[in-house]
């Protein structure tokens, strides 16, 4: 790897660290967003005795200056110690870990589904551009982008679980296969919006390549259409693959609603419970973890861009953001 | 052969039927939003003796919810919170986007840098997730949630406008205006603004659709409208418990959200294509 590339990688790493620092400050400030006394809010509806208030103040260092509090919190968070949940009274780290599996499985399944269906559909739509099939696929993808996951989830529950009885209604099931069976509907509901987005993105990327001069030239040289398409797809692959990485952010937003709808005890449901209970330490920890995962994914995507595409190495790389 | 198969077709000039359907549908939803008290005056009437009944009952084509409220009427009344909030979100975020984006794009320098960092920070987290967290912490309520969404939607609008302005910068008309000694604010809002209107308008509609989805998501989680208020997201949350007794209690508002958001999105896409074509033709 030559020097400018390394310098770019380091600069990008530095920017990510700075972003994470700023985000963690914001996340920490979350607890000051609730109106009223922080310690009193943290006690929730429980009996508020002066001793309890004093204990909360001491435990969360609420009498220290803001930056000191932040430093104590973030230095512990880096080591995996996110404090104590107000709702359960247990440590936040293990609580989150116990909920991670189900979210990872649902999100992973949804990711696979949307990529495996979305990319081929997008390619077909691009190749048949302007034709009825393309218009139909684009129309369906607009519906997919517009439909919120929880509404789709409830419709799926109604049709496939209650109506046809093909899938279980709620819960997680026992064992691997049964567990997977329980995750199919949630994953489909989560994948619909993402898949529609993948279709739009893939179509745009392939159309862009099809409009290039080299395609006209290759066709003019008499290359078979399949060979032309192979070249086009290789060039279109880079923006598609890198954007897939950024979709992790989208999955995190959707998983809260999907897990609530399907009564799955994952991280999303934990977020919902904690927000409604104002369980600040858990909300902070979850938000911080999401911020970390999303920023690191964006970093990895950017750096892999650098490795995959020699053209990118030559010019500056622009980061793209996906709103989810 | 190969050529015929892939050659782009000339775009049709006729207004597509889908767009007419979308506009009619949105007109109806808009009418309900403006005056549901006239259209369905008894939408909020409860009948707790009746309770939840399925569809097809005399006077209740789609049945009732657990409070005995008619699903059809309640859904029509829910049009208001489904349209008003998202429109406020989209317009508010557009105003921030145009003001900040214009200055950032035109002036560059420190304003541009600050606007860029602000966008980086807010776009680093998924908007819906951040909205859930912030709305949950600040307090629940429809207008609080609307405010939170304006802040969360604005960075991508700032980026959009900034990009559009930067695209205009090298054009000769700006240099002419500068040479004539026209004030920067006048150049921005009298000379550049008309050129970026198409992008901004199309984006406004896409934002309305996205805000509709986001707001109803938050209401679904109990972070939007208060309990009992007519709202599609709220109805879905209530209807989730009634899937066995009256599935239509969830299905009807669910379909309404999907259809309305799709209509707004289709309209936005079509508008941006049409305005694009006009810009190219001009």
Quick synopsis:
The complex is a heterodimer of chains A (324) and B (282). Chain A is mainly α and 324 residues long.
Description of the molecule:
Chain A is mainly alpha-helical. Helices cover 76% and strands 0% of the residues of chain A. In chain A, helix 10 (225-246) runs antiparallel to helix 13 (280-308). The two termini of chain A are 34 Å apart. Chain B has helices at 2-6, 17-39, 71-77, 79-107, 109-123, 127-138, 142-168, 172-179, 184-220, 232-240, 248-281. Chain B is an all-alpha fold and 282 residues long. At the A-B interface, helix 1, helix 6, helix 7, helix 11 and helix 12 of A face helix 1, helix 5, helix 6, helix 9 and helix 10 of B.
Structural features:
heterodimer, A: 324 residues, mainly alpha, MetI-like fold, 14 helices, disordered C terminus, B: 282 residues, 73% helix
Per-chain topology:
The complex is a heterodimer of chains A (324) and B (282).
Chain A: H1 3-29, H2 38-43, H3 50-59, H4 66-78, H5 92-127, H6 132-146, H7 149-163, H8 176-210, H9 213-220, H10 225-246, H11 248-261, H12 267-277, H13 280-308, H14 310-314
Chain B: H1 2-6, H2 17-39, H3 71-77, H4 79-107, H5 109-123, H6 127-138, H7 142-168, H8 172-179, H9 184-220, H10 232-240, H11 248-281
Q: Tell me the series of helices and strands of chain B, N- to C-terminal.
A: HHHHHHHHHHH
Cα(first) to Cα(last) distance of chain B is 34 Å
Q: Regions of chain A with pLDDT < 50 over 5+ consecutive residues?
A: 316-324
According to CATH, what is the topology of the domain at 92-277 in chain A? MetI-like fold
Cα-atom Rg of chain A, whole angstroms? 24 Å
Major sheet attributes of chain A = none
Radius of gyration of chain B: 23 Å
Question: Which class do the helix and strand fractions of chain B yield?
Answer: mainly alpha
Which of globular, elongated, flat, extended, rod-shaped describes the shape of chain A? flat
């Amino acid at each position: 790897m030559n020097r400018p590339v390394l310098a770019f990688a380091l600069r990008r790493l530095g920017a990510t660290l700075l972003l994470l620092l700023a985000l963690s400050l914001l996340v920490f400030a979350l607890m000051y967003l609730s109106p009223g006394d922080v310690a009193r809010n943290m006690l929730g509806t429980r009996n508020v005795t002066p001793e309890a208030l004093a204990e909360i103040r001491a435990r969360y260092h609420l009498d220290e200056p803001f930056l000191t509090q932040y430093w104590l919190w973030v230095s512990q968070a880096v080591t995996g110690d996110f404090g104590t949940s107000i709702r359960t009274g247990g440590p936040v780290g293990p609580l989150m870990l116990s909920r991670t599996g189900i979210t990872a499985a649902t999100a992973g399944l949804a990711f696979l589904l949307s990529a495996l269906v979305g990319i081929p559909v997008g390619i077909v739509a691009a190749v048949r551009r302007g034709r009825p099939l393309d218009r139909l696929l684009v129309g369906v993808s607009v519906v997919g982008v517009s439909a919120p996951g929880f509404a789709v989830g409830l419709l799926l529950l109604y049709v496939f679980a209650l109506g046809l009885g093909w899938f279980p209604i709620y819960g997680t099931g026992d064992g691997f296969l049964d567990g997977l069976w329980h995750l199919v509907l949630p994953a489909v509901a989560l994948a619909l919006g993402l898949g529609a987005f993948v279709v739009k993105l893939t179509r745009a990327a392939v159309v862009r390549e099809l409009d290039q001069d080299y395609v006209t030239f290759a066709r003019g040289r008499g290359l078979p259409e399949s060979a032309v398409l192979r070249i086009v797809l290789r060039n279109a692959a880079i923006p598609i693959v890198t954007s897939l990485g950024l979709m992790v952010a989208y999955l995190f937003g959707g998983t809260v609603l999907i897990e609530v709808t399907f009564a799955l005890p994952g991280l999303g449901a934990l977020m919902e419970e904690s927000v409604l209970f104002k369980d600040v330490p858990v909300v902070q920890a979850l938000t911080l973890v999401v911020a970390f995962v999303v920023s690191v994914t964006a970093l990895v995507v950017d750096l892999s861009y650098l490795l995959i595409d020699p053209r990118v190495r030559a010019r500056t790389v622009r980061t793209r953001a996906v709103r989810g | 052969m190969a050529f015929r198969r892939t050659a782009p077709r000339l775009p049709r000039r006729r207004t597509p039927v889908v767009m007419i359907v979308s506009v009619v549908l949105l007109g109806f939803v808009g009418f309900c939003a403006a005056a549901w008290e006239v259209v369905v005056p008894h939408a909020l009437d409860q009948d707790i003796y009746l309770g939840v009944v399925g569809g097809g009952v005399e006077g209740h084509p789609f049945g009732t919810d657990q409070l005995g409220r008619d699903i059809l009427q309640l859904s029509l009344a829910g049009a208001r919170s489904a349209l008003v909030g998202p429109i406020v979100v989209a317009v508010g975020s557009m105003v921030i986007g145009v003001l900040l984006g214009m200055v950032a794009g035109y002036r560059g320098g420190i304003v541009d840098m600050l606007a860029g960092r602000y966008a980086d920070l807010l776009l680093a987290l998924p908007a819906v997730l951040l909205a859930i967290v912030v709305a949950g912490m600040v307090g629940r309520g429809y207008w609080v949630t609307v405010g939170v969404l304006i802040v969360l939607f604005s960075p991508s609008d700032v980026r959009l406008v900034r990009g559009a302005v930067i695209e205009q910068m090298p054009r000769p008309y700006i240099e002419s205006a500068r040479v004539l000694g026209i004030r920067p604010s006048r150049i921005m809002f009298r000379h550049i603004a008309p050129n970026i209107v198409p992008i901004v308008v199309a984006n406004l509609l896409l934002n309305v659709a996205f805000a509709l989805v986001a707001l109803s998501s938050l209401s679904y989680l109990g972070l939007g409208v208060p309990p009992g208020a007519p709202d599609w997201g709220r109805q879905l949350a209530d209807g989730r418990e009634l899937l066995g007794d009256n599935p239509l209690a969830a299905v009807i508002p669910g379909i309404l959200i999907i259809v309305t958001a799709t209509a707004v999105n289709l309209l936005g896409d079509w508008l941006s294509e049409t305005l694009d074509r006009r810009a190219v033709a001009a």
